[in-house]
């Protein structure tokens, strides 16, 4: 029996419609003027997210005050099924003079299982008792797991942010009409903006070296939700955390926005963690790994990964695609060998199970590697692809570690989690050195521009 679950970020992105409906009268022409002067007041809750508060006296809302309902069915306007979910709120608090606190609007999560694969569903969400239900939306579930059915088109984005460049990326992506969206970390860059006014800078620590904590301006998350809603109200999105989601606050609490806003199949994939999990989409098994939680071979993520890889039935699900935020293979100066410890811990396991493709972000550019394993060309190794070029405020990376004078020094590129495991190459043209002096043989193509990736599966992989 096929059985498929879909996580729709209904919540975050549903705003209760309270505007009075405009009269259906015709819009007058200028010939019918002059008109009485009218000013429409700016609704600042549109920036902040309805009911979110930022300031010096924020009070968390009661999540139980609004129900979380989804009505859905296979025909427009006919909602044969109804589900209720849970609601929650989170806060981002700073016990430092001069910084502002934030508490979110109510965030709703509704889990719907038993949906049929490859099927269109029409839905509304909200609270019917107020009454406040959204407009109707429609989405299509992913195909069932088989070597002959695949999501039509999978979009991959890293490091998107919320800038004019992010808008260009999303416009192009929407034109490509994806049926599934993977977001490989660094979603909103809320932590490049100060709480005192929300003004952003491309390098927070350069602009504010004396900041008592790297504050994060949470209304960026509310704005990002509205920015993404036109697409993700109709196309499933799967996210995994990046360093910009860490967002430390009072009492050493981290990842609060990421963990509260997204529901991920951690239970369903047996990971028990929203930092790493797996799911199937047609004949593809996706593995999303956490680079900012323990990735050691002695830890629980590794143990779960091993079990998860072992369980994949490659006759039914031939393709294995893995994704995590910071790349293991990267020839740009930025983040060069930053997550080398993670590669050394986990690469052999992914290789053993013949992972086909690895997507990463973090480096704000595009780079596609040749099939590689342990820094040697290897036709059984995965193709690693960096797509950290979504269009965030930090700008695009242009320097290569092999450009003259651009080889990073040992202190550059410190990871925000885990150790430093720099290596000098043990063979080939860069033998004994930290950087190559030309584009490394494992780097097939690199380009410094903003954009997104599209993955289409046309056939079964050749197994060897
Ligand atoms: C923000 O919250 C923290 C922790 O509760 C508190 O210490 C601090 O005074 C608050 N700051 C403001 C500006 O209200
Ligand atoms: C803080 O907000 C609460 C609830 O809105 C209010 O009752 C209280 O008087 C406020 N305190 C200050 C110091 O403004
Ligand atoms: C709501 O919370 C309960 C208890 O924590 C949990 O069992 C249930 O799965 C949750 N439902 C959704 C839709 O998340
Ligand atoms: C980002 O957008 C700005 C203004 O819209 C444009 O000038 C710039 O070229 C874009 N950057 C890239 C790398 O596309
Ligand atoms: C991972 O292993 C390294 C080396 O054994 C150790 O230094 C580090 O503390 C470990 N990290 C975690 C999170 O356990
Ligand atoms: C990877 O290459 C290094 C350097 O040649 C070597 O020391 C190490 O044993 C290799 N690791 C594996 C898993 O083959
Ligand atoms: C690694 O290479 C760098 C230059 O690329 C060199 O300065 C350093 O001494 C090398 N380290 C080792 C242990 O060979
Ligand atoms: Fe990053």
TrEMBL record:
Reactions catalysed: a phosphate monoester + H2O = an alcohol + phosphate
Residues covered by the Calcineurin-like phosphoesterase domain: 153-366
SUPFAM superfamilies reported for this sequence: Metallo-dependent phosphatases, Purple acid phosphatase, N-terminal domain
EC number: 3.1.3.2
Record InterPro entries: Calcineurin-like_PHP, Metallo-depent_PP-like, MPP_PAP, PAPs-like, PAPs_N, Purple_acid_Pase-like_N
Cofactor: Fe cation
Domain Purple acid phosphatase N-terminal: 64-141
Signal peptide: 1-22
PANTHER family noted in UniProt: ACID PHOSPHATASE RELATED, PURPLE ACID PHOSPHATASE
Protein name: Purple acid phosphatase
Species classification: Eukaryota, Viridiplantae, Streptophyta, Embryophyta, Tracheophyta
């Amino acid at each position: 029996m096929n059985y498929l679950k879909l996580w729709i970020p209904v919540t975050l992105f549903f705003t209760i419609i309270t505007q009075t409906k405009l009269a259906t009268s015709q819009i007058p022409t200028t010939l019918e003027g002059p008109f009485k002067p009218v000013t429409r007041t700016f609704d600042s809750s549109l920036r902040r997210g309805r009911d979110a508060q930022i300031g010096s006296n924020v009070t968390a809302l009661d999540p139980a005050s609004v129900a979380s309902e989804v009505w859905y069915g296979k025909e427009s306007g006919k909602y044969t099924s109804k589900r209720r979910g849970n609601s929650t709120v989170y806060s981002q608090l700073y016990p430092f003079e001069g910084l502002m606190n934030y508490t979110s609007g109510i965030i709703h999560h509704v889990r719907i299982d038993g949906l049929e694969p490859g099927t269109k569903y029409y839905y509304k969400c909200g609270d019917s008792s107020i009454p406040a239900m959204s407009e109707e939306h429609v989405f299509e579930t992913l195909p069932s797991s088989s070597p002959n059915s695949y999501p039509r088109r999978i979009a991959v984005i890293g490091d998107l942010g919320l800038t004019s460049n992010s808008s260009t990326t999303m416009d192009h992506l929407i034109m490509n009409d994806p049926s599934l969206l993977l977001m490989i970390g660094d979603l909103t860059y809320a932590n490049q903006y100060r709480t005192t006014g929300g003004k952003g800078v491309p390098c927070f620590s350069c602009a504010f070296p004396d900041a008592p904590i790297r504050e994060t301006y949470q209304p960026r998350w509310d704005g990002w939700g509205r920015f993404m809603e036109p697409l993700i109200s109709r196309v499933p999105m799967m996210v995994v955390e990046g360093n910009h989601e860490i967002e430390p606050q009072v009492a050493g609490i981290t990842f609060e926005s990421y963990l509260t806003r997204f529901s991920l199949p951690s239970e369903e994939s047996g990971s028990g963690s929203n930092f790493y999990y797996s799911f199937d989409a047609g004949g593809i098994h996706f593995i999303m790994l956490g680079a900012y939680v323990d990735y050691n071979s002695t830890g629980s993520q590794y143990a779960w990964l091993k079990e998860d890889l072992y369980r994949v039935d490659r006759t039914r699900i031939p393709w294995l695609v893995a994704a995590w935020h910071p790349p293991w293979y990267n020839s740009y100066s930025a983040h060069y060998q930053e997550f080398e410890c993670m590669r050394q811990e986990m690469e052999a396991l992914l290789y053993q199970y013949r992972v086909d493709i690895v997507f990463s972000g973090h480096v704000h550019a595009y780079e596609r590697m040749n099939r590689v394993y342990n820094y040697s060309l290897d036709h059984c190794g995965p193709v690693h692809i960096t797509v950290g070029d979504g269009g965030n405020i930090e700008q695009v990376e242009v320097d290569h570690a092999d450009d003259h004078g651009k080889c990073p020094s040992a202190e550059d590129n410190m990871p925000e989690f885990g150790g430093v495991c720099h290596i000098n190459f043990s063979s080939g043209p860069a033998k004994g050195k930290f950087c190559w002096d030309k584009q490394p043989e494992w780097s097939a193509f690199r380009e410094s521009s903003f954009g997104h990736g599209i993955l289409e599966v046309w056939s079964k992989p050749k197994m060897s």
